[in-house]
Description:
The chain is α+β, with helices and mostly antiparallel strands. It has helices at 20-28, 44-52, and strands spanning 6-11, 37-41, 57-61.
Amino acid sequence: MAKQKTIKVTLVRSPIGAQPRHKECVRGLGLKRMHQTVELEDTPSVRGMVNKIDYMVRVDEA
Length: 62
């Protein structure tokens, strides 16, 4: 079985003042605090959440 592609997502802007659905996307990605980085599988659902909050996160291909 081939290794899944992953992406590294870092929260670079505070979700304070953001729309409630955008805050839910931040939590859904597993981000809890500023400058925290999580490594996630590169799936369409994860990409959709990242695209919704692209102004708050930085994405690096891993």
